[in-house]
Amino acid sequence: MARVDTLPEILRPLMAAPSIRLGRCAVCGRPAPLEQHHVVRRGAGTLWRHGVEVPKPTVTLCGFGNVLRDADGRFYCHGLAHHMRLHFRWVPVSAASRERFVTADMGGVGGHMEYLVTDEPCDYATALSMEGWRPLRRWRR
To the nearest 5 percent, what fractions of the chain are helix, strand and coil? Predict the structure, then answer.
């Protein structure tokens, strides 16, 4: 039986991103509570490479479930993502500098993850057209 890609075209660049597992939130640095968030939502469809389903990348975010704020009113990044106010994109390394940054676990494509926090919920296509994207912080272990 042939495997059919069902992942929308707009989400395919995100599938090149590696999963990011940290001891703190990748966006704000909060140390707890933490959850792995699927950058490409689980129900978005599937992408196949050489007959094998490509796993969806995840990133460590603060919060739990779709809870938006903590008891003090501060936002949880995981809640912002589930409320369509925190978005991610994968920015590949340019071809000229690719040889310096490529790692084997990235499938031969180097780059970095960026995020955008919006004031109001918006869909991914709208978020991609907005200004203000920032690279994920590089937290020391």
Answer: 20, 25, 55
Per-residue pLDDT tens over the stretch 64-91: 999 999 999 999 999 999 999 999 999 9
Q: Is the pTM of this model over 0.70?
A: yes
Whether the CA torsion 135, 37, 110, 14 is positive or negative: it is: negative
**Secondary structure (3-state) at 117:** strand
Contact in structure between 84 and 77 (CB atoms under 8 Å): no
CA distance 90 to 118: 18
Q: Got the DSSP string for 6-72?
A: -S-GGGGGGGGSPPB--SS-TTT---SSEEEEESS-GGG---EETTEEPPPPEEEEESSTT--B-TT
